[in-house]
Write a structure and sequence with these properties.
By secondary structure, the chain is an alpha/beta fold. Helix content is 46%, strand content 20%. Helix 1 runs parallel beside helix 6 and helix 2 crosses helix 6. The relative contact order is 0.19.
Length: 166
Amino acid sequence: MLSQNNSSEIACLAQQLGAALRHCGAKVSTAESCTGGGIAEAITSVSGSSQWFDCGYVVYANSAKQRLLGVDAELLNKFGAVSEQVVQQMAAGAIKASQADYAVAVSGIAGPDGGTADKPVGTVWFCWIGPSGTYSKRFLLKGERLSVREQAVKISLHELLHQIGG
């Protein structure tokens, strides 16, 4: 559930994303862990999104990341679910398993538990894939669990929009 402060900004980004995808005749898919489907929810809250949203994967468990998106178990063991290597494979798996031209993947530690010295609460890895290639980035987000998740949704949508050129 979105806080009232962020819901209008996220809705605006989702509408802009939809317009950009419709304009170029493209589709998007999502592969989400810490956002729990929040990116897909934001996208599908826009009327007509079935024209440009292909599918979304909510893959909290490592076994789901492996089974549904083809994430390599060795990478999960070596780097952990919250890593550049894993989100890149999540995004690639979402593209491969869908009819989408673009994909976003996100995996992070929204809190309040689960953080470590190397990966504190708020650590979130993102990966975007599109016709122009693959782009991944780590953010250290601040705030409570809901705030971290909302920030991750906004970042995901904003960068997708940027990738499309909108």
